[in-house]
Amino acid sequence: IAGITQAPTSQILAAGRRMTLRCTQDMRHNAMYWYRQDLGLGLRLIHYSNTAGTTGKGEVPDGYSVSRANTDDFPLTLASAVPSQTSVYFCASSDHAGGADTQYFGPGTRLTVL
Amino acid sequence: GQNIDQPTEMTATEGAIVQINCTYQTSGFNGLFWYQQHAGEAPTFLSYNVLDGLEEKGRFSSFLSRSKGYSYLLLKELQMKDSASYLCAVSSNDYKLSFGAGTTVTVRA
């Protein structure tokens, strides 16, 4: 069982380019999340999806979009990348069945926008 | 919104005990999580508290006081592999997590 996979592992991108970060989980979790992690700021929620077909905005959604066509996949798109989007991006998922609802994280994508 | 505070850095000696404090202010509360994150890796789940009191899991324990908006993570018998960042995260009523900036623990021989 792979858990959560993310691709690419790292990417250097020119400003203004479009980029999609991929995230796939095989745990049949209902909810999925995208975070960015910056030094000194901790993990901040970008977008989330409570179930396939629905999405919502997190704390820092501007410049990003997501879709949730099925349970397993939750891609994050930067329509026109800017240097301030240089960060490490983590995808996570949770069962969302009540109780602790622990989130499990993918290995991350390190993105540099020049 | 959520306001979560934890110390930036802590240093301790191998075999010792370290306590990482976390204070929070929240508009809704559905539990508090602690995650461990080694450099360059993903956060991994350590513990969850939703009721007041101490939860013990081997060398790691986590405590919660909801009335004080306070939690701590206790690491006992420190090992070199415990050198990592420890993230405090509060779950709100809609199950979304808000994270503190993390505490970097360095274990020295």
Provide structural commentary.
- The complex is a heterodimer of chains A (114) and B (109).
- Chain A has 114 residues and is mainly β.
- Chain A has no helices and 11 strands.
- In chain A, the strands form 2 sheets. In chain A, strands 2, 4, 5, 6, 9, 10 and 11 form a 7-stranded mixed sheet that branches.
- In chain A, a hairpin with a 6-residue loop joins strand 5 (42-49) and strand 6 (56-57).
- Chain B starts with a strand and ends with a strand.
- The A-B interface holds A 31, 33, 40-45, 48, 58-59, 90, 94, 96, 100-108 and B 30-31, 33, 41-45, 48, 50, 87, 89, 91, 95-102.
Count of runs of 4 or more consecutive helical residues of chain B: 0
What is the helix fraction of residues of chain A, given as a range? under 10%
**Regions with little confidence, pLDDT below 50 for 5+ residues of chain B:** none
- Please name the two chains that share the biggest interface, counting residues whose Cβ lies under 8 Å from a Cβ on the partner chain: A-B, 23 and 21 residues
Rg of chain B, Cα atoms, Å: 13 Å
The tally of helices of chain A reads 0
Task: Give the gist of this structure.
The complex is a heterodimer of chains A (114) and B (109). Chain A has 114 residues and is mainly beta.
Task: Supply database-style keywords.
heterodimer, A: 114 residues, mainly beta, 7-stranded mixed beta sheet, 4-stranded antiparallel beta sheet, 11 strands, globular, B: 109 residues, 6-stranded mixed beta sheet, 5-stranded antiparallel beta sheet
Give a topology summary:
The complex is a heterodimer of chains A (114) and B (109).
Chain A: E1 4-7, E2 10-13, E3 19-25, E4 31-38, E5 42-49, E6 56-57, E7 64-66, E8 76-78, E9 87-94, E10 104-105, E11 109-113
Parallel strand pairs in A: 2-11
Antiparallel strand pairs in A: 1-3, 3-8, 4-5, 4-9, 5-6, 7-8, 9-10, 9-11
Chain B: E1 2-5, E2 9-13, E3 18-26, E4 32-37, E5 44-49, E6 53-57, E7 60-65, E8 70-75, E9 84-91, E10 97-99, E11 103-108
Parallel strand pairs in B: 2-11
Antiparallel strand pairs in B: 1-3, 3-8, 4-5, 4-9, 6-7, 7-8, 9-10, 9-11
